[in-house]
Batch of 4 targets.
Target 1
Amino acid sequence: MPPAAQAPRSFQRPAAAAVPGMRPGQVLPGLCLLALATGALADELAISERDYFEVLPVVLTVSRLAQPISETPGAVTVIDRKTIQDLQVRDMAELLRLVPGYFVSGYNGANPIAVYHAPLDEFGVRNLVLIDGRPAYSSYYFGGTARGLMSVDPQDVERVEVLRGANSAAYGANAMFGVINIVTRHSADTLGGEASLRVGGGGVRDARVSLGRGDGTLSYRLSAVQRRDNGLRSLFDSRDLDQLRFRADLRTDARSELQFEAGLSQLDAGDGYAGDVGNPARTLSWHDWYLNGQWRRQLSDTEQLKLSMSLTRESLRDSYAYLPVPGITVDFSGVGRRMDLELQHQTQLRPGLRLVWGAGVRQEEAQSLPLFYRADALSFTESRLFGNLEWRLAPDWTLNGGLFVGHHSWTGAFATPRVMLNYQAAPDHTLRAGVNKSVRTPSLFELAGDVRYDLDGLTLGRTFAATGQVRPERLLSHELGYFGNLRALRATLDVRVFREKMDGYIASREYNLPAPLPYTGTLVTDYVNTPGPRISGVEYQWRWSPVPQTDVWLNQAFASLSWPGDSGAGSTPTRATTLAVFHQWPRHLRLGLLWTERGPMSWSGVGEMPKRLRQLDLHLSYPLRFGPNAARVAFTVRNLNGAQTLFQSRFASPQSRRQAYASLHVDL
């Protein structure tokens, strides 16, 4: 009989504490009045033509329509390439420390993840990660996003747009707590060769080479990346990651262009805990490849057609001997596949009225004898129809209405609407209010997981036996917001106040089989819908450029998470703060400082984080020349304020590392 599988990790999580005296509804008016008053005073001052915030970023993530960040139906954080270079991050998850309400952790150092304001699982399944429009999450195991975030190298990234809040109205299932949209660099912007090397403490040994060729009609980039490190202290979580990526861009005529991408990744990573017989220290191997293509046709100045398709395959090899029972092998191994096809049409119906709509289909399958107790693959198909209408009711009023209708072959039909109204209260000052619904559909394991322990054809135990009755999680979100562009101060302020209610939270629950088994008796685990948490809070994002050489980011998030009755399954920090300072000294020496602080919390599947966590990172970079070749040398110290205990669980209390590393980048 096939090897058996171990049940997924789970930890007990306490109920969350409310934020004493926090009333988000009272915070927003005060902030808005302050910003409006400050803006009115600033408008009386002379504004330089070189004002840093003269042109605000244009984003696509929220409604699928190109909109200035001041007019989007939601709060967005944009991280540009210059900021990515200033911070010298090794993983995309680390970059999300810059986003208000996002927390970065992981059950070990080889699987860093980021979640938005409610750490309800260790896989990040309630965030949707898009890389050039391609969904980057696991089809095989719970829909996790950790390895998807690792599948792109920060040096290849042009910008990151993060919608803070639900967006199933535009993207459907899994866009429940936010959308992380990663846009890589156009191949025409990376012509020539590049090479970089990074070495330092904690076993850091990274290397990258890239070659770009082409012209304005056809260009391409081929890059190879290696990342090595020893992980966290006191854990067996070293990481050995190798990647190969290709991107090509072809302009077929004045109105049409093709984009094609392909990638391979191989990860060998430490996992498990010393002393845990059910999840011992070991090395697992994960391999994936993807193909991603987009065709865009500009039909007119106001009308565009886009066709996109992606294919992804991932495989995991992870097995070990279960020592308490000789002859038993625990196995997580399996294969996941996903195909996604979508057609999108954008048009202007009349002045002040724009529409984007489209249709698509996604098929996912997972094949794992250990996890599903069957040799063939399980699959589901999800078809979708979506649309978003932007209607400028009056010069100062804009209405955004979105609707996503989907059909999941296992769980049936669902609809996720959004309505958001924006009001320009004064020049450069926008208020927004709205409501939307989002869903998360169950993973294949939550629908059909069947974990058995067999020996010589005899079933000795069974731990998971999903009945397939679980339905999608649902989230109802109410939001108030403010965006101010304080031009004379060279600053912007973005405030979001939210209240969210989740119903149908998917949790594990035991039930009894008709007949007992020798080692596990009659108890097995299923996934069921339970009452979900209530989350409320306020967050703001302040960006300030006091002089052209300096940028300051200040983010804070205040939140309260409560569970009905005794069903507590996690807690969130009541306060989290991020302060980033970027400065360019004479001779182009650049400084980046990043400080994050968050209060105690519990992270489902990771462990308890009972102490306040503080992290200070220092980054310095300086341009050089090697003959005709431009170069840049950089020096980074992470956890400059000292190592800290990241979480506590039954088998581990890992610490972060104070580590320094240096890097050299050369344009060839």
Target 2
Amino acid sequence: MDSEIVKNLQRTNHNYFLTRENSEEFILKHGVIRMEAEQVTKKVWDRFVKEGALDESRINKRILESWYMCKKSGVNPFNGRGTKVLADKELELRKRENSLLLEIASPFIENLQKMFRKTNSNLLLIDKDGYVLKVAGNKQSKQKASEINFIEGVQWTEDLVGTNAIGTTLRTGEPITIIGAEHFSIASQNWACSAAPIHDEEGKLMGVLDVSSPLTSCQHEHMLGGVVATAYAIEHQWQKKMKEEEIELLHYALDCKDENKPYILFNRRNKIIYTSPFLRDKISIHSLTISSLQEEGYTLSRKDPIVASTNTYEIGYYAEVSKIQKKKPLNERKERSSFRFEGVQGESQVFKDVLDQIKKAAPTDIPVHIYGETGTGKELAARTLHENSERSDGPFVPINCGAVPEDLLESELFGYGAGAFTGAKRNGYEGKLLQANKGTLFLDEIGEIPLKMQIALLRVLQEKRVTPLASKESCPIDIRLISATNENIHDLIEKGRFRSDLYYRIFVYSLSLPSLQERKEDIPAFISSFCKEHSWNVQWNEEHLEIFQSHDWPGNIRELHNTLERIRIHFKSQVPSPLELSSLIREERSLLLPQKKKEEKEEKTLSFRETVEAERIKTALATAGGNVSKASSLAGIPRSTFYRKIKKYKL
């Protein structure tokens, strides 16, 4: 190994020293020497891309398998620029999730940067998913890298940019150098890159360290040795830090005053570090995990996180433990004495059929999907399902997915940990999924959930666990899901706006709510209910009710209630005349029509037959002095039809 590498590593103040005496042993053990194949030429690459032909004896086996994989998966060899880049907010979240890795690795990266200062190299720290967390280098080298979008926040994996040191290391878990035309995509072929994996104390991959240099100024014979040695030093420091954290957690336990309470201390990896004396005889610290605790019927209530004494990052958490009674099977539970419905039932058979479906579905725990136009009472149907279920003592948590801005919907659903983003609540936020635990979650307008979030929701429903944003803790949940939409889900699937696998998860039992037009015989009951609720003592006659029932009510129950509210405000304890009522509803509808449609209606001319009919109705109204009942008799037209004709001819 180059003496300058050893010298720089020895300057670190992190209690790890790679000496000249142990460097050869280190190199042999970790396989950092790369001499088994000649460097690939542009000609070899060109022939493989165009013809698929390759002399396999003249190329490193890892590069060989990567090329074939890239070709098979359709990676564009003539591009290779970074395309998947995190937004600033997402990158900040990634950095917070990897804050300790960044803190430990940064001093080592600075030392390695000094060693390569004459080569215009960039040093990069990448997380386990391939996202670049940190780029260290001079202004000139960073500018050159930015030309191919090789910047902080970019995801640099084989499937996105082709064979490259970072992506290949992520896939294989091995250190590697890739030079020039060994890169599968042309954008990276002016670079030489060396990368090495970084593992945690359990041997799990948590990131990659990379040095990338322009071909014109690189010293690639020294790059891989320096990168591997530095990655190993970072691992050593990480392990030391984990031991320090464990000792600090044990000190916390010894200082804890709640010895008579059942509680457990966990480290950042959800591993049990300490159990309180109250639990020690019942629970073995060595054989238990969170999942095994839950299987044994214990529930964990996580309290405030435990923060390192020297910093602000979380090193573990304290959780109180309680035993829960398992639910009896459905067939052993007591039957409810009566079915509860808080809305207006009315007389229509179509809605009686819907209530019958709700009665059948409510006692079960299956997902229910409700379809209905705006204003048909989807949330009321969902509440009725909840209130007549075995979960009625638990929470009913509704959320209108279409009313929450897309960038806030994820945190609203899944919640977030402390300090997740600027403006976040100090102690984090328990999302709707966790709020609904042991109860019912109602997702109204579920078709508005973005595709990326649909994947996360599907995973939660399958695994029955949710991980809040910026949190490493996965929390178990027990919810019943009720969803609703006023759109055709099949159409959304065909348009690529809704995932079919999520559809099959939520569309187990469906309810279709009728529009108000389909249940017009229930309108008098809705009017009576509204008057009773608002202590509005007015008398509606048959002619008034016929006017209400002759209207098509495209806004359904909500539009009917809004109209009644306006009448109550305007006429107070009086009722409008039938003509006033008809005019009021007609005017309201004209306000709701788009201007273009209004103009089209105004410009439409009547046929000869329609002109004659309009004159006959106009004459009858004049003769009857505006009395619609008399006018309809004079014209020989049924009263309900007469009202529609008045509206049609704008009389």
Target 3
Amino acid sequence: MLGLLGIVTLGVAWYGGSKMRMIDAQYSELTDVEMPDTAKLIRVNRLSNAMMYAAYKTLVYDGRSAQAKAAAAEELASYKQAVQYINEVSATEKDAAAELAPLRARLDAVQEVVVPALEKGLANSEDEARALLAKADERAVTFTTGMKEYNDRRVADATKESDRLSASATAAGTALLLVALCAVAGSLGLAFFVTRSQIAGPLDRLQDAMRGLAGGNHQIDIPGTERADEVGGMAKSVLVFKEAALRQDELTEAKKRAEAAQALVVETLEDRLAKLASGDLTAVIDSRFDPEYEGLKQNFNAAVAALRELIAAVIESAETISTGSAEIAQASEDLARRTEGAAASLEETSAAVSEMDQRIKATAAAATKTVERATGAIEVVDSGRSVADEAMQAMTRVSESAKGIDNVIEGLDKIAFQTRVLAMNAAVEAGRAGEAGRGFAVVADLVSALAMRAEEEAGRARDQLTATQTDINAAVDMVRRVDSALGAIVGDVNEVHSLLEVMAKDNQVQASAVTQVATAVNSIDQTTQQNAAMVEETSAAARNLTSEVASLSEQASRFNAGDRGGRKPVRSRVHAMPVASTPAHAATVTSVRQTSAEVEEWASF
């Protein structure tokens, strides 16, 4: 059935795949070839219009202008592009080459008229060019009309081809669906037949056998055990149930025999356990049991004997524990009172040490802040020294610059001198020239006077510069004195800072020591309080133990344990005994001594 369904599925897949590949190839032809070619032909129509537009632009502009020449070049480029598109479509579509040839001829005819029109337009022969362009317009209209009709036919054919491919794909899908439905229906029919004849029938017969077996007919035959499939496995499993039922019948008979022996054992145990419940520990089993229950009899008798000995030992131990628990309770009460007193003293000591710890910490914090202020003062003084150093360097640079200015003034003085010499020479030459050099002599006198005035101003500038240098040197000396004073201040502040650091470290060490002492005292206080609580709990536990031992003795006296060897009950006695040194008390004393030693050490420090 599965093989048939697989063959049909493969056939449907092969048919559907081949059909889809054919449709895909035709769609690829339509989208990859015909539609791009149609777009190229539509561009040819647009290029023909561009040719005419460029030709008319030569009439608008002067023939010698760059615009007219560019329009002529644009027309030629449009024509070549249109021809290229037509040639490409003719090469890819052999069937369309015959229809495109007349359109190509019409485009060439338009170009034949446009070329001379362009020449006339470039020569500014507008009337002749306009006549040729009118003729070219008629041919262009014929070309665009024919191209439009051809493009419309191509678009209509492409639409029909697309509709045909869509219908083919729909038909292929319907056929595949029908074939698949037929294959599924045939497979279901075959499956129903096989299931009914090979599975349901044998299972019905096996079900009848199982019902008979469940009804108590353990001799019924189980059909299908000879089969090697799953139904045969189920039949063999039912056969196992049948054999188990037969063995169960045998076990039922044996169970009835065992129940009688078990009833005797149960009755005897109920009688002896009732005696044990009433407190009679001498109740043992004397009846004779089957061999399989003989071990139970021996174990019961041994358990009763052990319980009898245990109760006797419990009674004797309860009397001894009662005496010891009373003594422990008295000692615990005494220790609790003493521990409470020690805890109160330690609590007061802890409060005092904590207050000392807080005050020393406050002192350490103040010392730390003082060190920080001293550090800030040192930084401020260092900053002042840096500023003074920079001021001294700036004044030194000013002094050097003043020296440079002196050199410049000296140069100006020399220039003025040479200018006056030249003016004198010019006056001499003007005197030799006589009347003709009189004006030149006047200019020479003016230049000489200007040179003398420049010498005077240079002298004044030199004097002023000398005074300025003297003030600068005095300022530099003062800045050096300020720097020396700041250095001395820095030394003193550093010494104070060192002393403050030592004080701060000492305060911190003291704070740490007191903190350790406070921590130790708090720890001892908590330990002492815990010890006091533990002692109180121990005392309460001892009192509870005394009452529990009395109750235990009372309960144990209810049992009949036979002869106890002449032992007499011992009364509970409480003796006043001195309080022994318990481990908790010893630890408390040791902690207090250590704390006292630490406090004395801190005080000496």
Target 4
Amino acid sequence: MNPESLINLGSILAEQNENDDAIECYEKVLALEPTHQIALYSLAGVLANQSRMSEAQQVFEKLLHSYPTDALKIKAALQIPIIAPSVQALVDWRNEFSSKIDELIKTGVRIKDPLKELGKTNFYLAFQGFDNLELNNKVAQLMVSACPSLVWTAPHCLTIRQTQSRIRVGFISNFFHLHSIGKTSRGLIAELSRNRFEVHSLFVPPVINDPVSKLIQDSSDHYHILPNSLEDARKVIADLKLDILFYQDIGMEPFTYYLAFSRLAPVQCVSFGHPDTTGIDNIDYFVSTDFFETLEADSHYSEKLIRLHNVGTPTYYYAPNINFKVNKRSYFGLKDQTHLYFCPQTLFKFHPDFDLILANILNRDSQGVIVCLEAHIPYWTKLLKQRFQLSIGKAADRILFLPRQNYNDYLNLLILSDVVLDTIHFNGMNTSLEAFTVGTPVVTLPGKFQRGRHTSSMYRKMEIEECIAHNPIDYTELAVHLASDNTLRKTISSKILERNSKLFKDRKVLERWEDFFTNALNSSIEK
């Protein structure tokens, strides 16, 4: 097979997450042509996506030796570990990352189209358990200095709004489908007052057609599928003359991250979709809740922090439909006599600090089994298992990894679980809301940053304090007690089922957003 055919096959395999086979294809090309640019570039990308950081870095160094472009220099620097081996490894990496970004800014690198040339964001920084304001600011500064054309302003943003018509709000995301973003966005889009607001939903392609995307399209006053290029998308959005552009997430994928550097509406905001500051000057507000944030939280954001008052989450949330047959544990290959702790979070949320808590639970509860879900990239699962063997030891044999589940089977697992374990530093959002829908207790330990305070905030809205831990030892005690004591667990479950309505279809959420949109636009006009 010739090099071009091998590279095409490798690309197909990589898209299907058959990464080992893809790597084999690229390595065959490199055995014939050691400096083949596309093969090296593709190999580096696959290795980085598997969190094989040292191997990826070696390939990037070979690339840079033969093809020392500015885009490659930036892309090599922006590779972020996904499954970290230890906290110290994260600290060391962050120091090195900061120095690399400083050097790139200093040397004055230049690119024309970051979407095509880089296609990267800082997504995985949010899961490292640290304050990311400085690093996100630095990366944003690098992007602006390397590509000044990112900072583009729509013509209508340079004039004062004259009309007294409805406020035009645009909701934008690549994830308006059956995804955590789609599930947390659809209610606000559908229910926002049409007397006061004209709602536009902006779909970043590729568009996935499913019931959630259909609901968002049908409930919007207007929906738009954006072009694939940044320049064309900016013009399309500018022509809408929006008053407010609300990014449902910034940093989860490249398109909206790079788009957010432009001024496309007088008011631009983001919220908890990707719960970390953007570092981008043209994002005016980060909208959160007073339950989510500590008193010192303003210093965590480059944006102005808005705390919506007395709401459990900033989302008008539709509870999932539980109208399906509930299978027994044996359906999933699980035993009835075990205490089942379910941690359904994506594996990059498993911070090394969490390992000690898992170890203590398993050591305290000899009947305990912790169930996790495999990653869509198998190598992540492999790396986490290897870390558990080192950090937890023999007890890690009782951490089971089930295949990724369809939605009903995932909800079924929530129902069957004795306890849901909330990851520390970066909590669940949809997962906790879904667990509360079926009444399964979630043990949580609130952290310093809002991404680690979601579940405790929901509990406080429900006025349930029993499952909120104060420290890692307390987390262990709560989890084991709940799993072992049927009476206690049923009592907590009953409380959750009685009070979870405070989290779903909360009209106060709509009112708070409507007031924020109105006040933010008025403030922009008065400037």
